[in-house]
Please model this.
Amino acid sequence: MAETAARKQPGAPKEAAARKGPAAPKELGRRERKKAATRKALSDAALELFLERGFEKVTVAQIAEAADTAVTTLFAHFPGGKEALVLGDDIEREASLAAAVRGRGEGESVLDALHRFFAGRGIFAEDLDNEFRKRVEFVASTPKLRAYARQLWVACEESLAKVMAEETGRSEDELPLKVLARYVLEIPDLASDAPDPRRALDTVFEHLRRGWPGV
Amino acid sequence: MAETAARKQPGAPKEAAARKGPAAPKELGRRERKKAATRKALSDAALELFLERGFEKVTVAQIAEAADTAVTTLFAHFPGGKEALVLGDDIEREASLAAAVRGRGEGESVLDALHRFFAGRGIFAEDLDNEFRKRVEFVASTPKLRAYARQLWVACEESLAKVMAEETGRSEDELPLKVLARYVLEIPDLASDAPDPRRALDTVFEHLRRGWPGV
DNA sequence: CTACGAAACCGCAATCACTACAGTTTTGGA
DNA sequence: TCCAAAACTGTAGTGATTGCGGTTTCGTAG
Model:
């Protein structure tokens, strides 16, 4: 996939946004709006085609065509390739993960917080519109996508380990925390093919709590 | 990589071997010998080129050329592609893993057996000729290869879970055992970038033993 | 309002992994 | 000696991904 990744791509401009008087929450210029539209057109087209014919049966050329853009534009928006079209690059994950831990309730352990966090997310969530659920199941049943999704989670390993270290007052390079981070982030993939993902989630955390007391 | 995998490839013949009287350990016919030679020529050429120029800088065409075979022959032997040239398809892993657990000493727990097993292997082993060590380090420092190596281990998940179930007298589809299997098989990858892999190994098992008492 | 620089697009050509196919050579027996 | 299977070969795709040079569209400083 994207190995070298160092090409012309739509990223954050020099100093865009924030200029129309005080406080501008969603004040996007036409340019930004169009960029977002293109991006959405691409991922929408991709998802539709994927669900219709299956991930492997759709080519990037077809997706670009359906979104009425050039193939190069597709890659400019999603350097991660086909799989990124469905799963995004998700910088959001890392942030929400950290937020869940830092903003945990009084007397709630770090692991409890993570447990709750996952319980309301993706395969583990219960209240999801069919649209989203369909997507989640599609990802879980497509090897390449599943692997990519896992990667996205595991990519948060360092970050999560660091947050856990801070929140438990330990050194940020303590090995056990790194290991724990990996094990926690492995859960979504691990529980993907469990008959009852929810129960699987609870079971795993039960064991992790026993193995890493005080976290 | 190999997605469809259903092509002409050198595999086990109809009923080859075992015909020259009783017991024929290494009695390979000329054909088998040549096949093995081709295979070796390929992986040898690959490893040499990889170490010399780096994994990404070598093309399969160059490897085939260096081994004096056709590219199609390369893929016939290694459907797994470039990464398989270094790491093999390793059906061996699964077997040795099971053997380590089943053949563990009296009073030795399953986790102890696995701990010992890994301790003498790859990054964790201490007595290794430079050749092998160089290879191990090369794999660990090449993302694609590392990922592939991990896959090979994780592919043993079902199998290991089953063996552990048998050996501890539990149902083979008990979730905790599947999780534990995954966590154990994740170790080689996990410990790859630890400053002291050996210590990392010990640390991880310490926690796993606590989390999965009685295994 | 206008010109200018950057950002977002575009299309084309090229590389590279991987596969399908069809034809050859080699080998192990019947 | 002869045949079928196995192993190998070259050619010709398909498809993802990237490099490049050129075009259009914005945003904004003047």
Summary: Confidence is low (pLDDT under 50) at residues 1-6, 15-25 of chain B.
